[in-house]
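Mods, move this if it's the wrong board.
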Amino acid sequence: ALTNCYVPLPVVVEEEKDVDSTTSDGLWKKKKERSAGDGKTSRDCQSLRYLSLDRSVLSTTDGSSLVEMGHTKIMCSVHGPRPAASSSLGMSSKNKEFHAGGVLNCEIRFAPGFGIRPESRVLNSPINLDGINNNNSNSNSNSLQETELSARLKDALSCAIPLEILQKSVLDVYILVLQADGSIFPASVTAATLALADAGVELYDLVSSCQVAVLQTNADSTDDNNANASDLLLLDPSEEETQRADGIVTLAMLSNLKEVTFWDQTGRLSDTTSSQALDLCRDGCLAMHKFMRNCLIIPTKHSNHAANTFS
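Not the wrong board. Structure tokens:
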């Protein structure tokens, strides 16, 4: 069963008088500690949110999973492998060669009108030239985000599935975002991997993913040392932290094989900061891999994990 099912709202904390609110560090120190997502405990900058993993939650699918990372809640269902029609295994538009191996279909959809902050809905909605928000275009903006996330998910999972042995078969992975509060892609990768394993699909390794948000105070500084000294790395960021961040680093990897299946970076970051954020993402992926493995080993029941800290 889902826990804490409501639209996440920003936590209001009393401001400190001695803190400089003009810097990213000052803004963050006002909150003192980050919420762990369970409404009770807190975490530091290098900790994961409250994590809940469950599998075999749907009886009408070959495999399913439910992942809760703080207030981000993802449900995944897997259908197949099933025999494919000739049109599904069509010819590539580039090389015009017939694909005898399997085909992986990934689709991510947001639950309509549920689990989205009003602030985020307004921020993501297009604005006309007269300054009026066009609420009818929210579905179009969501469709673009869903298409992008679906393509990223397919790229992250394709390297872990031996599609060559699934000859003339199709594997469908459906993700439903029940509630969004940051780190949607890492949660989707976790849910899809657990659902694939629950369906008995052969995998080279479990795909784990993590995200790091970077807050800078000297964004315009050309000195790498000065910029690095003031950068703040936030592991497993919430939506509020993601919107405030100057850069986002996302990583998906096969932890046992030590191979990266997906890597993405947005924002202008120094070499040192980018390297540190990538290392923190890797540590987060290793921790997620351990939790996912425990979820698959333990008999089917709700598995809860507290926030994990990396020093």
